[in-house]
Amino acid sequence: MARPIQFERDNVLEKAMQAFWAHGYCATSIADLVEATQLKPGSLYAAFKSKEGLFLAALDYYGEQGATRIGQALAAADSPLAGIRGYFQQLARDSADAQAMRSCFLVNTALELAGHNEIVREHINRHFDTVEGHFLRALQAAQASGELAANKDPRALAVFLMNSIWGLRVLGVTAPDPQRSQAVLQQILTLLDEC
Amino acid sequence: MARPIQFERDNVLEKAMQAFWAHGYCATSIADLVEATQLKPGSLYAAFKSKEGLFLAALDYYGEQGATRIGQALAAADSPLAGIRGYFQQLARDSADAQAMRSCFLVNTALELAGHNEIVREHINRHFDTVEGHFLRALQAAQASGELAANKDPRALAVFLMNSIWGLRVLGVTAPDPQRSQAVLQQILTLLDEC
DNA sequence: TCTATTATTGAATGAACGTTCTATAATTCT
DNA sequence: AGAATTATAGAACGTTCATTCAATAATAGA
């Protein structure tokens, strides 16, 4: 009974996410988003209500994709600990890439907005909790199978791994350098070994 | 031969720093800075050239203060490792404070601007390097005195400690919680012990 | 005391901001 | 085919932005 929507929502969210990720919430103007998504202001506001609405949608799009990817990578690994080691090896490589110089969209947003905006904080925490949950289950499985020492605390290790991700993201933006990333990686992995 | 400057530079920088720290570079307007510093736009521009100039001055003011404070805390401790442990205990307490919900000004800035602005990146790295230098010297001293195991790598540990600071700052903004902060702290301190 | 110099003031500037609105295009149901 | 409905386009809105400027106030040397 009416004209159907022309654009694909995921495509628009992907483009908007890239723009927000690259420049942050405040520094990304509606004009930037119009250019990135190829939608006119009217269409953007009809679909997402406001700049903040579009931002939250893009944030969730990023968060869900990321968490899913991590979950799949862990599930596909030869063993729980091998999955975690593999993930951090890749992360260390990413954070050493001087071309990228780009943190995680969630971490950027956490520091730009989470301190003041409770809604944003909730969205971010939800995604972080999902990832932490993946790590926790992997660590518990590793302990059950004897791959992780019995005297380790999976919960504490899971929080620590999240902490390490956040740190490596900052390192990747300020001083991307393979040697430094590898040094950090070694310390992190040491904590997963017997000691 | 001319009218002398009325304001104290450090006082203005302190106020400007608080404003930038609380809201970020982009979200802090000149009007905000005028109110915070009690200087009119003309005076701000005469003294600091531009918004960016004032920001960099405030960033350095923060960085130098912070690095000095850490250096003094480490020097005043009973032993090198005791100094490091004490610093991280305090940091873990800070990041568990739900009232504050505020990261480190340098970390905030790193994620907001360092990816695009090379000058900002250089300023930030200079301050981070100073702090890392303090940690490195403490770790080397600890190793020399036998307090730190001989098989440890002070350089790698120093980078890892910086990484842990950054992580705890993110934790403090998104989900301040004593239990989680303590869990992370325990893992970090474990790496300083024999194992 | 007068002159030169510089700090301070706050209004003025044009550009860019997020958002809204009206006209138009496209579609479905009757 | 016509009527009803909704997406799209892009100009227009008032506001706020960073910055500049002309007028004024305050000081130091002559």
Task: Give keywords.
homodimer, 195 residues, mainly alpha, 9 helices, elongated, DNA-binding
Descriptive account of the structure:
Helices cover 74% and strands 0% of the residues of chain A. The N and C termini of chain A lie far apart (68 Å). In chain A, α1 crosses α4, α4 packs across α5 and α5 (80-95) packs antiparallel against α9 (178-190). Chain A has nine helices and no strands. The first copy, chain A, has 195 residues and is mainly alpha-helical. Chains A and B meet through α6, α7, α8 and α9 of A and α6, α7, α8 and α9 of B. Chain A binds a DNA duplex (30 and 30 nucleotides) through α3.
Structural class of chain A: mainly alpha
Strand content of chain A: under 5%
List the chains of the largest interface with their residue counts.
A-B, 48 and 47 residues
Given as residue ranges, the uncertain stretches of chain A (5+ residues, pLDDT < 50) are none
Mean pLDDT of chain A: 96
Please give the number of β-strands of chain A. Answer: 0
- Globally, the shape of chain A reads elongated
In quaternary terms, these chains amount to homodimer
The rounded Rg of chain A comes to: 19 Å
Query: What distance separates the N and C termini of chain A?
Result: 68 Å
